[in-house]
Amino acid sequence: MSGPRPVVISGPSGAGKSTLLKKLLKDYKGVFGFSISHTTRDPRPGEVDGKDYHFTNREAMQEDIDKGEFIETDEFSGNLYGTSKSAVQDVRAKGLICILDVDIAGVRHIKETNLDPIYISIQPPSIEVLEERLRGRATETEEKIQSRLEEARTDMEECNEPGLFDIVIVNDDLDEAYEKLQSVLKEEITKVQEVIKS
Ligand SMILES: Nc1ncnc2c1ncn2[C@@H]1O[C@H](COP(=O)(O)OP(=O)(O)OP(=O)(O)O)[C@@H](O)[C@H]1O
Ligand SMILES: Nc1nc2c(ncn2[C@@H]2O[C@H](COP(=O)(O)O)[C@@H](O)[C@H]2O)c(=O)[nH]1
């Protein structure tokens, strides 16, 4: 499919991906579109089905996976997550920059496809800060916090693997991290803005 390059955002749970993406989507209305993933986890307070995720159950999701409807899926912290082909096509059909928020296993799966996105890793300044953020968000049980921190240790080690990401952004100061994110995406943003103007 032609159009702007998609963007894959990855990084440990609690690093600040959603915070940065919400700002980006708000500041660049009509430029970006979010690929709405499927998940078997329960919605958090305030999350909306069909907006934040397609909340589903394991049986239904497995059936759709077996039908070949997903680009990639992964088991993360006891739940199934996945990007459906239609989630990406819906955004790209509108000429928008498609943003995918996936874990590091998802990044590796996407590398095997012909999507050709820009790969960005958002990292916390340290595991201690990450733990504080996860606890501060107050959305996970103690067991889930521990399992997410375990996944985070692997992510923090693997993110600097040569060729895996185009850029690793450390989200310490939010404004600085957002500046870096915008600057990596500038070329694609400009392309879409020029199409809008023409
Ligand atoms: N630079 C920052 N400084 C301080 N707090 C931050 C910063 N960035 C994000 N946070 C806070 O950290 C918490 C986790 O952020 P967020 O939910 O965006 O993480 P995430 O990477 O999207 O996690 P997940 O993958 O679990 O969805 C939130 O409470 C958010 O407000
Ligand atoms: N491989 C995939 N990973 C995904 C997808 N959607 C989200 N995620 C990742 O899951 C964890 C946890 O997310 P949370 O919303 O439960 O906190 C996080 O790292 C996301 O990036 C997906 O479609 N595929």
From TrEMBL:
It is found in: Cytoplasm, Cytosol; Photoreceptor inner segment. It is an enzyme of class 2 (transferase). It catalyses: GMP + ATP = GDP + ADP. InterPro entries: GK/Ca_channel_bsu, Guanylate_kin-like_dom, Guanylate_kinase, Guanylate_kinase_CS, P-loop_NTPase. Its main location: cytoplasm. SMART domains: GuKc. This is Guanylate kinase. It comes from Salvelinus namaycush (Lake trout).
